[in-house]
Amino acid sequence: MSLIVQKYGGTSVGNAERIRSVAKRIKKAQDDGHQVVVVVSAMSGVTDDLIKLAREIHPTPDEREMDMLLATGEQTTVALTAMALHALGAKASSLTGAQAGIVTDHVHTKAKISDLRPKRVQELLKQGHIVIVAGFQGVTEDNRITTLGRGGSDLTAIALAAALKADVCQIFTDVDGVYTADPRAVPDARKLPEISYDELLEMAGAGSKVMQARSVEFAKKFNIVFEVRSSMNDNPGTLVKKESKDMENVVIRGVSLDKNQVKFTIERVPDRPGLAAKIFNALAEGNINVDMIVQNASSSGEKTTDVSFTITKDDLAKTRKILDPIAQEIKAGAITHRENAAKLSVVGIGMKSHSGVAANMFDALGQAEVNIQMISTSEIKISVLIDLKDAEKATRAVHERFGLSK
Amino acid sequence: MSLIVQKYGGTSVGNAERIRSVAKRIKKAQDDGHQVVVVVSAMSGVTDDLIKLAREIHPTPDEREMDMLLATGEQTTVALTAMALHALGAKASSLTGAQAGIVTDHVHTKAKISDLRPKRVQELLKQGHIVIVAGFQGVTEDNRITTLGRGGSDLTAIALAAALKADVCQIFTDVDGVYTADPRAVPDARKLPEISYDELLEMAGAGSKVMQARSVEFAKKFNIVFEVRSSMNDNPGTLVKKESKDMENVVIRGVSLDKNQVKFTIERVPDRPGLAAKIFNALAEGNINVDMIVQNASSSGEKTTDVSFTITKDDLAKTRKILDPIAQEIKAGAITHRENAAKLSVVGIGMKSHSGVAANMFDALGQAEVNIQMISTSEIKISVLIDLKDAEKATRAVHERFGLSK
Predict the structure, then answer these.
(1) B249: which of A129, A355, B215, B322 lies 20 to 30 Å off by Cα?
(2) Which among A69, A80, A87 has the least Cβ separation from residue B76?
(3) Helix, strand, coil shares of chain B as percentages rounded to 5?
(4) Residue A274 resides in a domain
(5) What are phi and psi of B209, to 5 degrees?
(6) Domain containing B101 — which CATH number?
(7) How many domains does chain B have?
């Protein structure tokens, strides 16, 4: 008998009918002779509704209270999923993150899992129960409810798979697997049968909606092979695992697009050592994830530079709040931000041993008349910041240039 | 500095605007120099929506899972209320029932409070926080989420007031206080400045929506004086306390109407000792609250009797499920139920020392052409079961007969 961890995202459990359909799939896994642990997200739309409600009451709600609020979303789904399994005659019990032993640090709204104590999960499994665990949430050592941030339910599933030494970890979502590009932008995008952790990591970091980086990092660290697949059909998905020799023969695995970027520029930062560190330390302390960073010498010839960087839209207000006093303190100029930005990336572990990938990408963008605002590169990824209005056109151009539909 | 416990019902926190308005009231209590603990219910409609959702998935949802589901309602409100207080510049922290130390037995959906360990509430108060506690919910010793049943938030407030030795306990609701009758049925009903625990108990048991019996019982046991008042205005409410000599001079304090009754009849129960006990034990084990009970000798002259009793509508399906096998086992006849029933009661501690109250009530009903189906009496209450269609007419007739508007 093997142990399967399954995770279902918000769309998969978006209404009563879908929850019933997910329950059938879960029940089948048990009928096939497996022990089953299920992690579910909040029903789609619920988290957004709660955030909206909170903002009606406070423009920048306290993060501890935000966690208290948002944790209700997943708690609702676990109870309903357990009921749906009961309706099919299965034994099932739901657990909150706290009850499942997901212990975290105190960084509310973006907590990190610090320990896993799945004793109760194991007891229930022994009693023949399907165990439904609320994703996205945990509890601190002193019993405060925390949430794990975006993609937190994936993290819950992978962490549980690691702690329980599960044989299989399946991430059910509303997409069929990982594609060479977003099929909505690129009609001839192709589903990948497998992808390495590092590639998926770079794609996640580059805005691919399949999975957040931290979940993939966690899986990589503990070498948890997992499958991303659809909860709407029985098609095989994409297997995510350690890179193999075979994988390295492909130069570019996929193209990824992040339309959720905001570009900040702090003008006329005095050109003294330590000032950049001051800015980015403050942002780090505020738990703002800064993505691309560029520093331009000012054209005026003065001893100042312009510093630009990108963040995700969610952090816009918070970033502004952190930057304003610092800019004053260091006597920098205006702070501007630009919301209509998108980040386009090409990713592939084969890139390491091939030169000319960047030039090829820039050429494709140039021919498509797409202007490049910022560039950043890693060992296996090249990203450019472009205008949001060019995003789809640019993705198709790059996808075609690297022959990804074949 | 005194300690105030305030409780706000679902209507009082029914939307963002009302939560903000409640927050102002709470803040004012702190500004007046008090320590404040607040208990809130789920936003009105939320619990019903969750129940509806659950029933879409399972006709009779598992009660453990139901508690898991319903507890999210109050958890949502506490977070939002804390945020609203932050928006006013107050220090405030929310707690779930579990975090506030509300320990209960294992009777899911109708749990009883077995212990109170409000250590964290006290710590937060010491730090100058307003503490917002989720009503209606608790946790078992082995960390399962429970709910306290209807009116559970009142119980949470009164139990916390007792455990914290609060100076004042205020139950804010959508009514102004306790009236001599439901003002919607009886336009000249009058607000009572005070009422004894026992009278309110009988009115609660008789369907008065102000408060559930168990909360009043709890307050009586620990001698917690509390005030029922409106969250919509600043009018003084009704003080609920131990009976005084003065109170006994009033024969009838009020008239109460319960439109939520269902009358069950088990026909031709063999007339043998122990059979009634068998029936009502089974119902008690199923946590069904049986209200009025009448046993009629069958007209046919056989050695059987008809047993009738009333329950609340909520328990209809469950009661049926429990009765069917028992009726078969004891070889009784058909089980019928009648949903369109209402229970009308007159309540007053002065009744003890006055005779003729029942006769007076029945006469008023007779003159109003209201047919009486069942009668039950206690020391300070007389109840009759009547047709739902006669309910308002009967209430007005009895209210007038006892001169309650003066």
Answers:
(1) B215
(2) A69
(3) 40, 25, 35
(4) no
(5) -80, -5
(6) 3.40.1160.10
(7) 1
Following DSSP, what letter does each residue of B225-283 receive, concatenated? -EEEEESSS----EEEE---HHHHT-S--EEEEEEEEEEEEEEEEE--TTHHHHHHHHH
Tell me the chain A residues in contact with residue B75 when contact means C-beta distances shorter than 8 Å. 68-69, 71-72, 75
**Separation CA A402–CA B52 (nearest Å):** 52
Radius of gyration of chain B (CA): 22
Chain B residues with beta carbon closer than 8 angstroms to that of A118 = none
Which chain B residue shows the shortest CA-CA distance from A49?
Answer: B76
A93 class by beta-carbon count within 10 Å (0-12 exposed, 13-18 middle, 19+ buried): buried
Residue B200 contacts residue B253 (beta carbons within 8 Å): no
Q: Residue B312 in contact with residue B262, Cβ under 8 Å? A: yes
Contact map slice: A 18-77 vs B, CB within 8 A? 19-20, 50, 53-54, 56-58, 61-62, 64-66, 68-69, 71-72, 75-76
What is the residue-level pLDDT of chain A in tens, covering all 406 positions?
Answer: 799 999 999 999 999 999 999 999 999 999 999 999 999 999 999 999 999 999 999 999 999 999 999 999 999 999 999 999 999 999 999 999 999 999 999 999 999 999 999 999 999 999 999 999 999 999 999 999 999 998 899 999 999 999 999 999 999 988 889 999 988 889 999 999 999 999 998 887 666 667 888 899 999 999 999 999 998 899 999 999 998 888 888 889 999 999 989 999 998 888 777 888 888 999 998 889 888 888 866 556 667 888 899 999 989 999 999 999 988 888 888 899 999 999 999 999 888 777 788 999 999 999 999 999 999 888 899 999 999 999 999 999 999 999 998 8
B16: chain A residues, CB-CB within 8 Å: 53, 56-57
The residue to which tokens 């896994």 are assigned: A29
Is position A379 within any domain? Answer: no
How many angstroms separate the CA atoms of B67 and B51, rounded? 10
Question: The domain containing residue B12 runs over which residues?
Answer: 3-174
Alpha carbon A29 to its chain centroid, in Å, reads: 27
Distance of CA B166 to CAs A93, B97, B223, Å? Answer: 38, 18, 12
Residue type, B348: G
CB-closest option in A76, A93, A144 to B69: A76
Verify whether the Cβ–Cβ distance B75 to A76 is below 8 Å: no
In-domain check, residue B368: no
Q: Is residue B87 part of a domain?
A: yes
Interface contact flag, B83 A56, Cβ < 8 Å: no
- Residue pairs between chains A and B whose CB atoms are closer than 8 Å: 102
**Torsion of Cα atoms, A170 then A173 then A178 then A181, to 10°:** -170
Q: Do B64 and A93 touch (CB under 8 A)?
A: yes
